[in-house]
Model the fold of this input.
Amino acid sequence: MDLVHTPRRQGEKISAELELKIIEERLTNPGLSTRQMIEQLRLRCSQASIQKIYTRWGLGEFTQAVPLRGVVSAPVPKVLPAVGFEERGSAKARFPNLVQTANLKVSSPFARFVKALAYRSVPVSNPGVLIMAPFLEQLGIVEALHTHGLPAIRTTEISNDILVNVFRIIAGFPTIHSYLLNSDRSVAIAAGKLTHPGRSAFYLDLDAFRFEQLKKLRNDLALRAKELNIIEGKEIAIDYHCDPSDSRYPHDKAQSKAPNKNGDVVYAHRPQVLWDSGANTIIDIAYCEGRSRAPSALYHFLEENLFQLIDPKAIEEIYADSEYTGERQPIYLLIRSHTDVTMCLKQNRKIKKWKEETLASAQWQPYGQEYRIASRDFTLPETKKLFRFVVKQHIETNETRCFGSTHTEWSATRILDRYHVRWPVETGIKDLVENYFLNKPTGDSPEKVEVHYYCVMIARLVIDYFRSVLKESRWQTPEGWESVLSTIRVSILSNQNCELSLHESGDLLLTYLDGDPTGVKKNLQMMLERRREADLNQVSWWGGRGIRIRIEDRYQFDSGTEIH
Done:
């Protein structure tokens, strides 16, 4: 009988997509061995196959994490580099004539639409996006995209899908799907697109962005907001937000896990937020790896964002939440910013030791009717600076919370009272979730999530800029709190009975048809007229046209037919 030869086993083959995923995972987490890589990605191959990829691409030479997926964890170095602050200008300030020099064009369908407005009017129900267009123009989004963006997004048209997405958020559409189901064309007209982008095409266009470009775009936007005095940069608050992912395949989308408010570890997007507590506006927001712990992710986030935008000498105080509690974090903030730091402290081993020492020699003072407080000063290592440690205890339950501040000249009561300055970041994140749809990203890949954060950041700064210029007293409480976007929407921005036509000057003419019983529209009309005289009521993707307001009580809802 002939000898039966056993067929040779074919060598293991790894697809190019899987190989790229292994490379990205190894660069993001250099500590992964070949065995750990197989467990991390749930691979069905030998360690030798993974080692071949490590060797082929020289992955063993990388000992520091590479931020491919937003902000990744990295320890604070023992010796901080001596980095000076370099004052920079935004793309809008550096290239004010970029639209002309780059020979960018208005969309041809929109140009034909404007010609048709000369002899007919178009009904619109979301006029707020048209009103916000001149303010969005001043933020320099077009200039930033053509300065820092990839060639794939530098089209010959002035308009782009980022503008569509921002106007979609301002108009009140939570998702692209809800926007495409609406028959009103206000968002498309405001963006100079005229037609709705296809859903698939819109998602594909967002795939061109990468984290390095998005970081530059976010920082450029913050610089422009600083130039427009939207951001002060004196009282800075830092916080995290956990948004559980609703993707059916989060692991395939390179998403990672993070603890939610209940303490459960779930697949989640976890943006890190910088907030201006003095001006109550956003400074920056970045996608952060869920596996990145807040204390270790703090260093890269601040170095690449906050200290690139604001001179540390101009910062008066930094407020941080308990997630950033670590032995080196207050020291880093204190040395790097040369300012005072106040923070809520998570009760880790070091904090528990301080708490026990404080309680052992506590001289309790009343704080309200339900709490009592005690304080003690400790010396921070390396800086040898005193740090005032405050324990707040519930009288009935003995539940304690710990706070700390470098303001040793302040009493414990004043430290807790001043800590409330950090509260705007909590209400601000809640506002971003409810009114700017922060938890409804466009797509579920990390890059698309950060694109959504960029659009949310733009929308919030546009609204803050608009409110600062209009100064409507009806949108401000006696305590100084400003109304949220939902209140402004129902006043003049959304669900309004309006029509759009062309003014004899060439500007777009927006007519409110239901009168002006509150007087807000009249104030808006006068404000836009003043900005037109100052050459600030122009929109490049409209061909240099502006927007004008006309108020008419066509259906006599107010007090007879009258035209202003």
Q: What stands out?
A: DSSP finds 21 helices and 16 strands in the chain. The longest helix spans residues 446-470. The mean pLDDT is 86. The radius of gyration is 27 Å.
